[in-house]
Amino acid sequence: MTIQIFLQQVANGISIGSLYSLIAIGYTMVYGILRLINFAHGDIFMMAAYFMVFSMINFSLPWYISTIIVIVVTIALGVLIEKIAYKPLRDAPRMSIMISAIGMSFLLENLAVYLFTGVPKGFPDIEILTKSISFGNISLSVVTVITPIVTLIMLIFVLFITNKTKIGMAMRAVSKDYETARLMGININKVISTTFVIGSGLAAIGAILWGSKYPSVIPLMGVMPGLKCFIAAVLGGIGNTTGAVLGGFILGMSEIMLVSFLPSLTGYRDAIAFIILIVVLLVKPTGLLGEKVTDKV
Amino acid sequence: MITNNTNKNLLKNILLIVIFATIVVLLDFDIIGDDYVRRVLNLAAIYTIVSVSMNLVNGFTGLFSLGQAGFMAIGAYTVAIFTVPIEYRPNIFYVIPQNPILAQIQLPFVVALILGGLFAALVAILIGMPVLRLKSDYLAIATLGFSEIIRIVFTNTKTITNGALGIKSIPEMPTMWVFFGIAIISVVFIVLLINSSYGRAFKAIREDDIAAEAMGINLFKHKVLSFAIGAFFAGIGGGLLASLLGTVDPKQFYFTMTYNFLLIIVLGGMGSISGTVIASFVVTVGLEVLRFFDDTLIIFGVNIPIFRAGLRMVVFSALLMILVLFFRNGILGQKELSWDLLDKYINKKKTPHKKTTKGGATH
Predict the structure, then answer these.
(1) Is residue B266 less than 8 Å (CB to CB) from chain A?
(2) Does ipTM exceed 0.85?
(3) Contact assessment for residue B138 and residue B242, using Cβ atoms and an 8 Å cutoff
(4) What is the pLDDT of residues A120-144, one digit of tens each?
(5) pTM here?
(6) How many angstroms separate the CA atoms of B39 and B25, rounded?
């Protein structure tokens, strides 16, 4: 392998890793507050990609207006899902809430198959993102370069909200102790909705960047990214935003490196995420940056 | 009074068994029903096996495991690899030839089926030893991950499993009794298990694992045992599915398959065997009945545009949501269906009188 190909692969790894990070932030925030794996998150991401297809191809809107519309609609979808599937189950046992999340994910997938058919749709070409630029001998598309930058900006944005604003303080309070926070007069529903707003917004941005990189939109496209991003969140320490970003990078990097160094194992590409997950859960169940939690007896 | 009731219930049970056996015999000899009906009922029997085993793990032991599809794949592939007649194999493995050792082995169906179950249980023990330390959603995601890893491995080990092409020409079973017989044996086995001291330990772990441990129950041993038995029957179910469909390929065992069984145990009631059996038949037959959603519907020459491919699964998943949101306990909750329960229900309908509460047994 020449140094040039190697650097190209590193750039790809960072790019895909930061995409995972972006979606993983959504998982980690919801988990931090509701203690729930939002199985539907990957499907919200899928829906965002479809919204982009519709707004740019069917309604021929320019990309900058479409982006805004898609983010808004996706956020609305995310909040709606929370209201339908999670809110009625606030005091239900963990297993019921999780089954509800699985059901929601399944419903969104089937709805997408029904409404948009299983035939892949082409993601619209956003020229500003898909154009390629070269650094010396390496040529990369703009989206590859821009993704890590977007992710870092978003990470700073989310950290700012959670650490410096009033709603962020409420979020931290809710994630520490749900019941006490409620007794202290924190509006739980507002906090949870805000979490879903941020998470879904990031999923929408992720979907636009993803679509510019892999321009084929199908109803099941959210499943694998969804699971992998959850794994990234667990790897970094679930509930920890910086950890989610770190986990995403590690996951993206190890995947790309597996494919480029051991091409014979390319078929196992999707398995590596799960292997990493299981190893992490066994060695350090709270993830790389996770806090130690003690069980209440 | 009690003896009178027991006698009456015994009679009712015998009557029910006779009716059930008669129906299966009539179906089996092609007197009533057709191939389609038989196929759906056989599928329901397979779903019963897998759902009841999943309920053992999820409903009775309280381990949220989502690995059923993976364990079924193990059973299905074992049956597929060992039962396809040797002379057909070069035609199936035409791209990459089968492993020369495996290519010479052909086993009888029952042996391959049990072997499939045992392989699944073995894998479950290997997986379970490290993973069962995890709790609720971590366990769910880890088992789901394992089920995906199994599927990915099967897609890639082409000399053994023929990769994505799958294996065809698996011999089909001539009689429904293969499916129903094994389903009955599995259900009886799991009922006996649940009512044994092991079953009580499982339920104790479900209610509160820390308290259970304090009472001297070996958590690790019982969790692995429950997980392995669940996997064994999932493997058996997978093997039967392979023989029913006559073909296996990795795509069948995508992890969304596990959601079917999840729907069944939620509908039947987590922690109710009879509920799960009823729900298995309701869901399997229901999925077939709902098939009309997928066909175009024309009323008075007008094509109703809502009815097209995919609607069935939308309805199916919407039902799962409604169930979880509004009928969280399913049909039976943690109760078991019995004549006494039925009598009580009918009496309550007839004469609406004050509810009498009996202590203890149920929640």
Answers:
(1) yes
(2) no
(3) no
(4) 999 988 888 888 888 777 788 888 8
(5) 0.86
(6) 15
DSSP code for B328: T
Q: Tell if the CB–CB gap between A98 and B140 is shorter than 8 Å.
A: yes
Mutation test of the interface with chain B: which of A34, A38, A90, A99, choosing the one with the most B Cβ atoms within 10 A? Answer: A99
CB contact under 8 A, B320 and A274: no
pLDDT in tens, B206-253: 988 889 999 899 999 999 999 999 999 999 999 999 999 999 999 889
* Structure tokens that stand for A123 in this block: 């993601």
pLDDT per residue as tens digits for the range A51-80: 999 999 888 889 999 999 999 999 999 999
In A, which residues are within 8 Å of B321 by CB distance? 84-85, 100, 103-104, 107
- The per-residue pLDDT for B351 is 60
**Residue A273's closest chain B neighbor by CA?**
B145
Contact list in B for residue A92 (CB cut-off 8 A) is 328
Collapsing DSSP states into helix, strand and coil, what is residue B254?
Answer: coil
Alpha-carbon distances, residue A58 vs A52, A55, A75, A208, A210 (angstroms): 10, 6, 21, 16, 20
Whole-angstrom distance, CA of residue A141 vs CA of residue B273 = 56
Q: In 3D, which of B297, B292, B270 has the Cα closest to residue B51?
A: B270
**Closest of A228, A207, A162 to residue A56, by C-alpha:** A207
